Structures are given as C-alpha cells and as structure tokens.
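Worked problem 6 (solution included).
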Amino acid sequence: MNTGVTAREVEDLLARTTWPGATGACAGVGELADRFTAAGFAPGSVVLVALPNGTRLIRVFFALVLAGLVPTLLAASTPASRLRATARRLGATALVRPGTETDQVTVTRLDDGPVRTHRPGQAILLTSGTSGMATGCLHDITALRRNAARHARSIGLGPADRMLVTLPMHYSYALVAQVLAGLVTGASLVVTGPPFTPAGYRDVVAAHDVTVSALTPLLVADLQADGGRLPRGLRALGVGGHALDPARTGRLLSANPDLELYLTYGLTEAGPRVSTLAAHREPPARYASAGTPIDGVRLGLRDAGRGPAEQEVLVTADTVYRAKVGVEGGVSRGKLVAADTIATGDVGRLDDDGYLWLTGRISDFAIVRGDKVSLSSVRKAAESLDGVLRAIVTPPADEHAGALALALYVDETRELSEKDVRRTLYPLLTPNERPGELTVHPVTAGSLHK
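Solution. The predicted structure is:
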C-alpha cells in the first residue's frame, strides 16, 4: 500500500518540531497507526479530525494516512451539529477529538449515516465554505507532497530554516505549504496558535529563532497597526491569498528592508499553491500581481464574457484534486474542465512576462433590480472602513426586487454600530450596491483568517 509517507520520515519531522504548548507525551506515529488499523475501519474510510494546532495533530494526520485511512481536518471548535452534518455528507466512519489529557485523543465511531471509502493514500481538504457548507476535495498524498516541494522551492525553503506554523492546520496552506513542506525539505517547524496577537507573534519568532513565517493579509494588517516591524532573524514572510494591498506591501518592505516577502496565490482544488510573487525583488508596479506559476503549474485563460482584461483563470497541474466529495447544490469553485485542469472561477489576465493579475471572481457579480453589481466593489468599500475586518456580501434571491445582504465582522474594541456603518458606508455605494440587510458582528482582531 503506497500511502505517500513513511513512519520514519514523519518521526524525523516531529523530532524537528517544537510545540510550545505541549505538556505531555503523545504516542508515536507508528503506534497510533497500529491503533487505527486495529480499530477495524475499512481501508480508505474517511476519518474527521477536530484537534487544535500541535504535534498531536501532525501525528494523527499522518498516522491515519499510514493506516490506509483518509483524514479530513476541521477546526477544533467546530460545533457538534456541524461535525455531524459534515460526517453525513462525506460518509465519515469516525471522529478524532481531544482526549482528557492535553496530548491524547479519543476516537468515536460514527454510525448515523452511510460510510464512503476512497483509495488509501488520499486525504480530503475542505474548502473555506464562505458561501455555505464546505466542499471536500479528495487529493493524493503524493500530489500534496509535490505541491509542497514546488512551493518550498518558490520561497527558498531549506533544511536550515525554522518555519513558524501559526495558521490553523485545517487550512490547506498550513497543512501543505508548511507541514508537508517541512517534511520534504528537512526544515524545522515551530507550531503555535491561533489565536494571533502581534506581541505574541514577535515573541515566538524571536524566542525560537524562526526564519520563515506565513500570515494572512488580515494578520499583516494587525502587525502594521502595531508598528509593522518584524524580528531581525525572520528571513522570509509569505502572505497567502494574493490580496495584500500594494500600499501595505510597500510599507512592510520599507519597515523591514532585509525581508524576503512572498505573495502567493492558490486554491484548495489546485493542491493548493499555484503562483508566487517575490515582492522584494519586484518593482512596486507589480505588487498587485499574483506572480508567476510555481514549477509544474501551467496557467491559461478562457472567455468569461468580460473582455480580454477579465478572463477566467485555468490551472493545469498534476496536483489538482481527484474528486469533489460532499458537494451540495450550486456551482462550486475549481471545476475540472479537462485532464488535470480546473477552471478557478477567478478572473484576470496574464501579461507578456507571464505574471498573473487577478481582478475578482465570476461569482463576484450579481443582478440587483435589473443592474449588474460588483460584489467585490461592495466588499472592498466595506472593508475600507476603519474597524471592519471582513465583509461578506450575499446576492438577493430575487434579482428584480431584492437587495444585497451585508455581514460585517468588526473589531470589538471599536464599538461600531449598524447606524455608524450605514452613515459612513452608504455614501461610498450606489443605490443598488447599498445593502437591505446589514448585520454587524464584533470579533477579536486577529481571530479571522482568509
């Protein structure tokens, strides 16, 4: 059975991994794999894993793979009702959650729905689920390894590096571009968080001699609000999502002149990393670009009905997903349109030098009272307001009579009310862009990830 990993290389990775939150000893990956095998689950069975970041999560993920099972990582805080719904949609056979001791786990057999099996040596990565319940993408572990190695080369990651994993490992970026990248390159890992705070981040980077880190655009904004300086030992910073504002990119490089800054673009369906921009080597005019494709990835375009500057981006690679699982109604992003080729749903253009410029998504437009409205424009206007951390725009059910709905996640320390938001946001929007339903949700800054 080719699982794509060996117990020895996983144990070597764990020996290079520091988990400041550890308080006890967890079983070895080989021992855990034997336990999962002894449980009698059918080969290729789906097992949900809801554990916080840590070496325990790394051990469980790889132990399930070695046992010929198909791990699916979820947030440790996932409500029980969402876990049950996800288990039914994916046909999961078991759930792994924290045990009574900090570093132990409990395994619960799930008997309330049909069980589905896949090929051993695979894993399911969940998409973000921003527009509803998350969709699962079935990937080969060998393909995820290839993508990790290619991404690592694009940022110069090597065995001398110590990489901080502060993003949740149930996100494909942290799992593939960090954990698996550490496995294949020999880099060491320091595993923390979330939650994220600028002071805590700087302390961990300095205390553990971290040389490589990755943050979301929102977390970069938190750092810049707190001064923007990074510890001197940090060689390279990656920012996923390609959505870092060019002005922020410039300020980050100005505040940290020796920093290597890599802006990356990807999507879970692609395996997941697609392209990288080495911003520290580029002129400011390219800061808004998503860079050039990593090794083994080819980019293409197809007509999206918006002219040559806004065509749909196609990604061709031997790392794209094998199948969508747990798909509910509606059209999902990342549709297979040819062998190893997905239509991303993102729109943009490729310039003569091979750089990708993204302008939005096909789904970022809706008809409101007969007029086409850019959801991206509404989202950007809302997120430009001081204190707004994220905006989610929902099209109306009736495109002739309805209005947009807007949910805002705001810094709880700013005390923004719905009235405050309407007063400052509405002048920035056209009548059809103004939401009918507006909800404001106070959250802790740094608790949201893209």
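Discussion: The chain has three domains: 7-120, 142-362, 369-443.
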